[in-house]
Amino acid sequence: MSTLIEFTLSILIVTGAAFALLGSIGLARLPDFFSRLHGPTKATTLGVGAMVLASAIYFTTLQAGVSLHEIAVVFFLFITAPVSAHLMAKAALHRRGAVDAKRGKQ
Description:
This protein is mainly α. The chain is 87% helix and 0% strand. The protein has one domain. It has helices spanning 3-29, 33-62, 69-103. It is elongated.
């Protein structure tokens, strides 16, 4: 394996780990539900995506063909994370509206 590929893999793994760490810290430290929802869906998705991309590049260089398993994981991750975050945010807004209506607020 060439030095350029090893350097690229190292950058992707470190960048992915940094994004995953920032998303996890955001989940633990941000003040309300909507802020906490934002951290993991954005930063952690990018972090895991970068690490899986590094894995795809690594296994593509070792084997004769292109490694498509990791690309499928990245595709499903980028599709499902925003959809699940959107559904949780809609449920929280719906619940907040029901609580506000019960209290008599508009």
